[in-house]
């Protein structure tokens, strides 16, 4: 390196290769001053509002309604009316046309949605542009394809819709989670009341304009905004037939308690503490990219994030050295800058939680590494962090941090890797890095995780089911499996 530096100084070339700023223009998206609730195809005025902000600089973006139980009741009534008034009995091929239209419109307006997603949520534009929006559109395309084939998906079982679905989503993938919830529900003939997360309501509200363009019948999709109280009102609403929830394990358990004995259907997609396991025969540089993608993608606000790295002892030192070197090249900053790798933390509350757990890691004796990094002055930021010397009992090895923080542990044998990886109350995902195909299969059979990635990480496709074991929840989203929660069967 030093030799290279010297040579560079001798020749007449620019020495500074830092990226010039390349911000995406926000002019493409229009944000209203205030928003109401989208109910029965119309906008209802909220009685009470709160301000939604941009986490990159705390700029107020819009006033958004805090829906009361009465507002939620109106939305559920609208969904029920639309269900009874034709949507549930519409031929699947007709429902499919609406879903195809929504998918096309999302593609056409994807840049607008991506800018708004990054502005309101803090994720880098290159992720919202290249991952969130393309996958959201792909989800609508995929389930449009199933709408008229439900009888082939479940031969001899005569599927019919469940009714009105109440759907509560989190702030880490606002549009993608909306698509995961809304697309299969509509494909199966249900109607929907959706509540986006309180910190990221704006893309769901913009989606109402896509519904208008697609001429979706009024009341088929209704959107109410607000915090956990609005979510709780939706869960408690008498006339909802099914609840689909993605969020914290704590709230998921609470919802399960509330619904026990009511006969309402429930699916839960909750937290995770995934193991990303690297064997000594793995392609190390490739593995480092997978580790970085696994934990620093979307600031680590990912339920399936590879937050526990298990490294085979013989390659521990070279791997950690490569990882730390790679970390120092990550660009942290403005989510709207096209060169940004790690954006803003979604909220002050989430930043507080990350800080608390990182402090606990230091306190309990793990060794912390953070690359030199200049953070913007305003807004919510956290430097990408690696902990080494982590013990299984440390809080940073047990609890979901949901931030850009990796805990590194070691193992000697495949058996030990499996035992340590499964030593968690969660079971959403895992990663395995090895040259050996038979070892991948051996590991995948033993890891208690809904998804096991091999020599890759965080790879998604609408045709592949996703969901957890244990405290990561139950039910599957995506694929043919993702239809089942939205269907009843006459048998
Ligand atoms: P949360 O579970 O409170 O929020 C998720 C959604 O549930 C939001 O729309 C929220 O308004 C709603 N909600 C909150 N309380 C509710 C209730 N009693 N009844 C019905 N709906 C309710 O998650 P929060 O507080 O935003 O994040 C806390 C932690 O949860 C994070 O630090 C992370 O560890 C985990 N989390 C996991 C997610 C995942 O994708 N599995 C997503 C978001 C958070
Ligand atoms: Mg909460």
Question: How would you explain this protein's 3D organization?
Answer:
The model has no long low-confidence stretch (mean pLDDT 96). The strands form five sheets. A seven-stranded mixed sheet has the order 14-15-16-13-12-17-18, sandwiched between helices. Strands 9-8-7-10-11-19 form a six-stranded mixed sheet, sandwiched between helices. Strands 1-5-4 form a three-stranded mixed sheet, covered by helices on one side. It has helices at residues 2-10, 69-87, 92-108, 110-121, 125-146, 150-153, 174-187, 202-213, 228-236, 249-259, 284-296, 316-327, 348-363, 395-398, 414-421, 437-446; strands at 34-35, 37-39, 42-44, 49-54, 59-65, 159-161, 164-168, 191-195, 221-223, 242-246, 265-269, 275-278, 308-312, 367-369, 385-388, 405-411, 429-433, 451-454, 473-474, 487-489. It is globular. It contains 16 helices and 20 strands. α3 runs antiparallel to α5, α4 packs across α5 (125-146) and α11 (284-296) packs across α12. The structure holds 1,4-dihydronicotinamide adenine dinucleotide and magnesium ion. Magnesium ion binds next to loops.
Largest sheet: 7 strands, mixed
Q: What gross morphology would you assign?
A: globular
- What class would the helix/strand composition place it in? alpha/beta
Count helical runs.
Answer: 16
**Ligands in the structure?**
1,4-dihydronicotinamide adenine dinucleotide, magnesium ion
Unreliable residue stretches: none
What is the average per-residue confidence, as pLDDT, rounded to a whole number?
96
Share of helical residues: 25-40%
Tell me the span between the first and last alpha carbons: 70 Å
* Biggest sheet strand line-up: 14-15-16-13-12-17-18
Strand content: 15-25%
